[in-house]
Amino acid sequence: MAAPSPKHDVFQAIADPTRRSLLRLLEEQELPVTVISSHYPISRTAVSKHLRILTEAGLVKERKVGRETRYRMEPEPLLELKRWLDHYERFWENKLAALKRFVEE
């Protein structure tokens, strides 16, 4: 039986700047929502919604510690994004090579 597909994909999840910031915050450490919320000028409820979207996309994992839920980044799903960007990198390389030729002429 195949695993159910996530409610949100990686591209949707990282489209929001707050969620990208949350990923940066969680890349080095596991934190509870109370600590995470202290880094943002939005409500704890709003932070929880962002964390839920990141969790549904597989970019954040949650773990219960007593009565507290702690969150940490899960980088594996970002490989999908990297593969997609790698495909288009050749266009950037071509543009940079053309710019270099133009500047050197």
Which properties best describe this structure?
105 residues; alpha+beta; Arc Repressor Mutant, subunit A; 3-stranded antiparallel sheet; WH_DNA-bd_sf; DNA-binding; ArsR/SmtB family transcription factor
What does this structure look like?
- The chain has a domain at 10-74: Orthogonal Bundle (Arc Repressor Mutant, subunit A), CATH 1.10.10.
- The relative contact order is 0.15.
- The model has no long low-confidence stretch (mean pLDDT 89).
- Strand 2 (60-65) and strand 3 form a beta hairpin.
- The longest helix is centred in the C-terminal third of the chain and has 27 residues, at 78-104.
- The chain has 105 residues and is α+β, with helices and mostly antiparallel strands.
- The chain is elongated.
- The chain has helices spanning 10-14, 17-26, 33-37, 44-56, 78-104; strands at residues 31-32, 60-65, 68-73.
- The protein has a three-stranded antiparallel β-sheet with strand order 1-3-2.
Q: How large a portion of the residues is in β-strands, by DSSP E?
A: 5-15%
Q: Figure out the total of helices.
A: 5
General form: elongated
Multimeric state = single chain
Indicate the structural class: alpha+beta
Q: From N to C, what is the helix and strand string?
A: HHEHHEEH
Major beta sheet summary: 3 strands, antiparallel
Quick summary:
The chain has 5 helices and 3 strands, in the order ααβααββα.
Write the layout of secondary structure elements.
Layout: H1 10-14, H2 17-26, E1 31-32, H3 33-37, H4 44-56, E2 60-65, E3 68-73, H5 78-104
Antiparallel strand pairs: 1-3, 2-3
